[in-house]
Amino acid sequence: MIKISSFLKWSILSLLIAFFAGTTSALFLVSLDYLSDLRNKYIWLISFLPIAGFFTALLYQSIGKKSTKGNKLIVELILQPTKPLLDWLMAPLILLTTLIAHLFGASVGREGTAIQLSAGLSDQLTKAFNLTPSERAVLLRASVAAGFGAVFGTPIAGAIFALEFTDNQISFTKAITPILISAILANQVTLWWGISHSVYSVTQIPSFTITNMLFLLIAAFAFGITAWIFKRGLTLLNEMASKYFPNELWRAVFGGILIAVIVYAAQLFKFIGLGIPSILNAYSLAAFPTDFILKLFLTILSISVGFKGGEVTPLFFIGATLGSMLSVYIPLPISFLAGLGMITVFGAAARTPLAAAFLAFELFGKEYIFYAFIICFIASFIAGKKSIYQS
């Protein structure tokens, strides 16, 4: 009887989590596409980035203090599920401020928003279903998996990510069932709303030879070092921004001015927002050596001064353009290296190599996963232990 009751409870919870994550991700993605197109049409909107930063900081200072830490707060609650519930304002705040960041040209992502939308709403079910702390931790992991799976269309990677991103270790317990089901259903809900995801095509996979493996080790080292630079740069710039601009409002204003001036002066319009067209181009045309560096710098700067959205899609951009550029020097197929760079730099920065490998499986196909496993774990080791999701 207890098992039946538990089954029914988690079935209902999984459906609710999937509905929350899938519906909010669909709304977010549609809005994001519309506002990104609007920004590209009226490029002068970037000049209002300082005001956008000020408004974002003001919102979080006045009504969103409990949600300021974003994904890092969700990690803390999964590890310490006896803490108070997530503020219900987390969901509308992150949606609004991320859309503002993209409309006015900050270099941020979207996974942080999808995860906080899902977790912020799903955590409100804790009291309604009288969940124990351990059950609440599963609920939060399921919401993370659902948000990640829905926004990228990769539910398996989403489930693995939810298990891996808190402490970089995976415990395959019975909790995997509601986590995986929530991610799969959330992705279906997003598809039912008519959302289509970007298709990344790896057209050629190299043969398995000792020479090719040596080349892949070189690539893995480059991806791992880049992920380390991203994490280290994020830490250092956060510290500098806090030191020289302790007031978050003025920090956001100064950061917005700096980003807008740099983008206008150097005509770096393709490096703001998500940069999906540049990621797709990297699979067929060799990227410039400066592409991944410029995106890395603008992303670190945007996040450090307070713009919301996340890091994953910018990491996709950084990794894909780095891999694409390496194809000029490493005799391996360009689409193969671009795809490898895209998932590996993300996995190494987030310290989620297994999730990154399954991301490759869902995005590129089963033929790719062998290489992804090897390179993701090597690059993750090189990038160091700290994750972008750790406080």
Describe this structure as you would to a colleague.
It is a single chain. The chain is mainly alpha-helical. It is built from 17 helices and no strands. It has two domains: 2-192, Orthogonal Bundle (Clc chloride channel), CATH 1.10.3080.10; 210-383, Orthogonal Bundle (Clc chloride channel), CATH 1.10.3080. The longest helix is centred in the first third of the chain and has 40 residues, at 2-41. It is globular. The model has no long low-confidence stretch (mean pLDDT 94).
Element layout with pairings:
Elements: H1 2-41, H2 49-62, H3 71-79, H4 90-103, H5 111-122, H6 125-128, H7 133-152, H8 155-164, H9 176-192, H10 210-244, H11 248-266, H12 276-281, H13 291-304, H14 312-326, H15 334-350, H16 353-364, H17 369-383
Helix pairs in contact: 1-4, 1-5, 1-7, 1-9, 2-4, 2-11, 3-7, 4-5, 5-7, 7-8, 7-9, 8-9, 8-16, 10-13, 10-14, 10-15, 10-17, 13-14, 14-15, 15-16, 15-17, 16-17
